[in-house]
């Protein structure tokens, strides 16, 4: 074998190696510009298509492509390629080189259809391409007869494609296009409006390495296509290089005009497009032409990218812009740029040549596109070409190969976070890897998010207002502790009930909804509208009102409602008090007006009443008429009344006198029943429950009679004719402000209760009860009654239960200025009572006096100590509310108990903190007596301690 | 059915496995057996139309037996330009037997313009050159791989026929 022949073989094998390297270049490029979830699939396809394509090429395709031609259409021998003889080394070298070309063409398809094509479908497509499409086109253009003359019908017409712009690249592009039209774009490639959405590549440096390998490999692709090592090779390599440079630089140069940042993917494809452009003609043109052809190839590539986006064709790696259209351009450029000198011709018939080239482009395009489209379309009927939507979302690495990467593990951990919402766990960090750095940063983000969530959770948990979330079906999704506390539910169990059952329950015994009749029906889904819900709790008629406002939102396509529940009972109470105050101010102005009127009319009225009275007392002697008696009584009442008014005018208050209320009330009620002018009172079944007491109250009898008559009339009317009305009198001690109406001083009170059996009143009406003339009973001026009672230092209160009746209570302070029980004749023991409230001293003294105890009292710790030092004290009764703050209370006890440990200490109080109480009991307190005092219990405890000494 | 189809495909394929386009099957020129008793005969007569003849031979049984390269040159124009415008025919003798293949070269104005490598009456490789002596490739001659194949044929011819210009 000659040296030249050996050199040829060496060159061809070397170039075959270069072309094989392009397979690696495509692998890096395609897996780099696709997402990491598909990278293994893309790379694997690049390896596998090489194997399959080469196998089929050896079995059948080489024979079809380069076998003895049948009419220029297809080869007919050379299957299972095997050769012997002197030419074997050269022919085998050519086979290797051609086999690499076949594999390269198949790889173009894998890039275009990446990230969605089924693996086995791709293998089938590779087989179709390698057997039915590529070898036929290759035969038409590259097949020769025994003497090297063109054997393919296209080549015989003069069609030129030196290294395969059309045969390899356009063919691969046409098949890719047909396939893309059938399988469609990747999920998310185009938005709802049809705009292209960029899908970022996973590893651009890898893609750039791939492009570099492709450029390097292209030297073999074009340089080896001479199939001999001759003088033409250097020019071919120069043209190849300039084609790549032209394509790359033109894209770079266009970037400033596109007003975008340099896109690495586009620039890489520019270089490839330039290479594809010069592939057909690099043996026929000069360097300048090669540069121009490469540059135009780059521009065509950019235009094709836009066109594909416009047509909504998703080419994952830009294979069609880089291979199909630049391939067409390169083939046509043969006619435009072929150099007559290089071809050794006098001149070139460029028009005729262009026609031939154009014909070749059309025929190759039609064959490749139409055949593959029909074939794949039919194939789709029998086997799915594309992966399912779920598989595409998961990624083809997993769905097609069950391949896992550290990225996948990271994604799975992140998915776990998203699914469970448990931010306490952290994702695993693989050190010294890029994914590890992402994981570390992600963990930092989770740390911050966790902290923020905890703060939010803390606010959510500690908020006084209730918050609930519920879905469109009304099922409660979450509830904060405040809401749970208000409704008596565990927040964790909130998911078992609906918003309706929670907010407006129908079957709960402990919580009853009573909406005002004129209010709109409650609807938890009425977003943005403030709605009130009124509740009664079990055994309480206190109106509890919450304001509820819902807001509507969406999370993960699910409608979510958030409801804010605010307990406004207190604020409504305050509002009502304010209204009452305003009403009283108005009432005061009215009173002032009446007072002025009275002042002017009173002398006249009093003079008139005196004369009537005189007349009524004188006339009976001569004119006995029972009506005169009534006249006399009325005149007397007028005189009393005007007398009271005169007193009010001069003294500023009603004339008060100390009266035994039990006697007064008994007498008054008996008289009233007998002489009332009101039918309701006369017909009512009045029953009395009057405590026998010696306690007195400072009252204006005539004014109190007016008040009682007013209240009784009201009660009788509420009960109805002939129904029972109960009048009770009892005494009590109030040591904390009264709730319901207004604050009153602590102390002893005599209370007159008038109970009816009427329908009762709703809570909201009770607070307004005394604010003016009752609309139902316009002749009853409750405001006036309340004013009179207040003049007697008393207070009126009302309580009612719907369906059970109403209780009117008249509190009158006990008059004790002149009542001092004194000391018992023979004291059984001495009790030191320490309390800063003087009226309590009198009360305790009175209570214990009956038990035979001597009572000493002190208002401060210092006084108590002095008293203990100077007297023999048997029992110490200590008020724990002596001091204002908790520690001071404990200190008071401790100070006294430590100094006089032998004296038993009974602590008292009305609203004692449980912790303080527990502390003092633990430290030695003998017991606790709750205020208001139960006299029997108080005496029993004192007796016990006194006896135990 | 599938198995039968596969078997038939394999059998058919193996029967068709002959090397496509192998120039070995063409019967390319082979070098004559090397002998050391060859005499070179060269006749030049500028007056004759066939003005140059060359061959190598040996003597066997007293008879001249041609073996190796044989060539003659025939002028195509006038005598003055006999060595610039002529047609050269080369053949190979194998122990007195003339080859079926030959090489015919045509010079015009001292420039080789055409060389026809003839394997048989039907098979020949014609290479044309322009006035500057450059090969005229033309579209067909430039087809991928075809040129290489022709070059390999001509290279063998050139080696056997001792053509070095």
Structure description:
The complex is a heterodimer of chains A (949) and B (165). By secondary structure, chain A is α/β, with parallel strands linked by helices. Chain A has six domains: 3-382, Ammonium transporter AmtB like domains (Ammonium transporter fold, Orthogonal Bundle); 404-458; 463-567, PAS domain (Beta-Lactamase), CATH 3.30.450; 576-650; 653-818, Heat Shock Protein 90 (2-Layer Sandwich), CATH 3.30.565.10; 829-948, Response regulator (Rossmann fold), CATH 3.40.50.2300. In chain A, strands 4-3-8-7-6-5 form a six-stranded antiparallel β-sheet. Chain B has 165 residues and is α+β, with helices and mostly antiparallel strands. Chain B contains three helices and eight strands, in the order H-E-E-E-E-E-E-E-E-H-H. An eight-stranded antiparallel β-sheet of chain B has the order 1-2-3-4-5-6-7-8, with helices on one face. The longest helix of chain B has 15 residues, at 146-160. The N and C termini of chain B lie far apart (62 Å). The chains are: A alpha/beta (949), B alpha+beta (165). Chains A and B meet through helix 1, helix 2 and helix 3 of A and helix 1, strand 8, helix 2 and helix 3 of B.
Strand order of the largest sheet of chain A: 4-3-8-7-6-5
| Second CATH tier, the architecture of the largest domain in chain A | Orthogonal Bundle
Mean pLDDT of chain B: 84
User: If you average the pLDDT of chain A, what whole number results?
Assistant: 83
Q: Radius of gyration of chain A, Cα only, in angstroms?
A: 54 Å
Task: Give the full name of the CATH homologous superfamily of the largest domain in chain A.
Answer: Ammonium transporter AmtB like domains
The largest contact between protein chains, plus residue counts on each side, is: A-B, 55 and 40 residues
